[in-house]
Design brief:
Helix content: 55-70%
Shape: globular
Distance between the termini: 55 Å
Strand order of the largest sheet: 1-4
Order of helices and strands: HHHHHHHEEEEEE
Oligomer: single chain
Radius of gyration: 21 Å
Number of helices: 7
Length: about 220
């Protein structure tokens, strides 16, 4: 294999970089195989599967029927339950370890939280239908509901927020923020999972919108 002209210098630079892991006062690294963070990729996978549950036929497969939709949704939720349980556990475990505590109840907390989260999904979905209608009512350029569900970044950000908010309310560390920051990178809309937002919420032309942790928004609000 042809050597890069910088190969010799890169070895020295590598050594100097690794030295900073110990010498720098701020330890901005996590070199511990037993201290795994929740996965960004898994969080994205969970969100995309929940989009297919909340908006069947618009996200995920598009050949659903009244006869097979329940089976399809159930299969997705089985996958989400497995993925979410692992990520919630990692979030609790990591939080305990960085605070110097023993993680004696992380497994039990995870089971409780995941069950309560799934119980909240019908109400989350109901709220999202109001958000879809609010977007249609609030934007004269919208041709139909399909356009909003399939293409509007505002609804995408709100959907992720409502999922992450439920996890945040249940006390899950880190994972809700990973979810909303992914939505931020996708849409340009930054909604903290700790914010409180009522139903029938619409964000139009959302790039640059920031909704902080202490924000309390009532029902029927539109943000430009």
């Amino acid at each position: 294999m042809k050597r890069h002209p910088l190969s010799d210098k890169l070895r020295e630079i590598t050594h100097r970089l690794v030295e900073t892991y110990e010498s720098c006062e701020i330890h901005a690294q996590n070199i511990d195989p037993d201290l795994r963070l929740p996965s960004r990729e898994a969080a994205k996978s969970i969100l995309e599967k929940l989009f297919a549950v909340f908006y069947p036929g618009y996200h995920g497969v598009q050949h659903l029927t009244q006869e097979n939709v329940a089976f399809h949704v159930g299969a997705i939720l089985d996958d989400v339950a497995e993925e979410l349980s692992e990520q919630v556990y990692q979030a609790f475990y990591f939080d305990c370890k960085v605070r110097g505590e023993e993680c004696e109840s992380c497994a039990a907390k995870t089971e409780n939280v995941v069950e309560r989260f799934f119980s909240s999904l019908p109400e989350v979905r109901r709220r999202l239908t109001y958000d879809v209608q609010a977007a249609y009512d609030g934007d004269p350029a919208a041709s139909n509901l399909a356009e909003i569900i399939f293409a509007y970044p505002g609804l995408r950000a709100i959907t992720v927020y409502r999922i992450a908010h439920e996890l945040n309310v249940l006390g899950v560390p880190l994972l809700p923020r990973i979810m909303t920051e992914w939505a931020h990178s996708e849409t340009g809309i930054d909604i903290h999972p700790g914010a409180r937002i009522g139903k029938s919420f619409f964000i139009d032309h959302g790039t640059g919108v920031v909704i902080g942790e202490t924000t309390d928004i009532g029902e029927g609000v539109k943000i430009y």
